[in-house]
Amino acid sequence: MFWVQFFSRHASVQKILAISSVTRCTSKSVKHGRSVCLRSIFFNSVKYYPTKLVLGIETSCDDTAAAVVDDTGKILGEALHSQNEVHLKTGGIIPPVAQQLHRENIERIVKETLCVSGISLDELSAVATTVKPGLALSLGVGLEYSLKLVDKYKKLFIPIHHMEAHALTIRLINQVEFPFLVLLISGGHCILVVAQGVSDFLLLGQSMDIAPGDILDKVARRLSLTKHPECCRMSGGKAIEHLAQQGNRLQYELGAPMQHHPNCNFSFSGLHSNATRIIMQKEKEEGLQEGHLLSCVTDIAAAVQHAVALHIAQRTHRAILFCIKSGILSQTNATLVVSGGVASNQYIRRALQIVTDATNFNLLCPPPRLCTDNGVMIAWNGIERMRAGLGVLHSTDGIRYEPKASLGIDISEQVGEVAIKVPSLEVPLNELATINL
Ligand code: KG4
Ligand code: ZN
Question: According to the UniProt record, what class of enzyme is this (predicted)?
Fold first, then answer.
């Protein structure tokens, strides 16, 4: 996502917030499981309380989210307020606007979560909150609110690394044992890690510049896709996926990044420049100014989506081969988990499926609502940490948020030194029309 740099003029922020007050922001709360009050459950007249209940709070970017999860992985309730519509209107996230919207919504979202969960604050075992990485102003709202709750209700506090939470979400849904390979692709992140334990990661590679969701959002914005009748309310990535289905990816060639760097790092800014150049050329040919819809948006969307998918698939393929060669993962029953907002893209998933089929890996993706930012993943990370006895705090003295934070031990240089050559893959015939790895 395009994070507009700090915007200090109060008047401008007020103007944008005024847009937000007339915009219907997405807000939802969901009750899961039994329809009875989950505060206490009776089994043969014996009152049963789940032993651990964690409230998760997420405000690292542009979603204000909360959830209560118990130690069996049951989601008792969740609520989420998305700022997406506001940021679509302003052409990107303006941090003070995001901060103000978090402030306006956090209390309501937490109350709704507790209400649909049927849980009182007294019954919670702990509060888990994202403290890194993310936008400083957004992280600050969640942390400040959480610390007040923790102090008032004398709860344990579990600081959460946003990317660790994304990586572990799959274990809420599937029985995946450590170690497994994780690809996180979102608007702000692009990393390949091996999850060896709850708080034990090896970083194989990451983006050297922008994230895949960021390039999709930037291209969508440059193409003015919010003016397209079929995708005016979609995120950039979703709009590109939607239009690409009707386009011909072979009309434009964007190139393959980092072919002379045999590692697992990524780079998307070259693809972004090439896409912008093509768009400018087409505008010239069609006699259009920036801000007007080109006739060939579907073909450009298809070409960009394909180039992004191919780059992600090739780097992930190398990561899989490295893990096998170095013995980090066994060749039998190994798993690739893909998560983050971009993981909901079906074309990218298909490209990754081709890679995992060829390498005998299982491919697992959380459902879309758990791929994007949510409170459940934070609460579940809290449960994982409680079970493992890791980072559960009795005192919150000195707790700070950290806008920048890497995940795990960085072994990306060693990966590059091995310089594994990625073979080209034979793609099933019926896939050839859409993908060609
Ligand atoms: O994980 P997420 O909700 O937030 C963070 O960025 O952390 O991911 C949002 C990103 C946006 O860039 C959005 O355009 C992208 O995920 N996205 C998609 C799709 N749906 C959302 N990208 C490609 N295809 C999609 N269907
Ligand atoms: Zn995220």
Answer: transferase
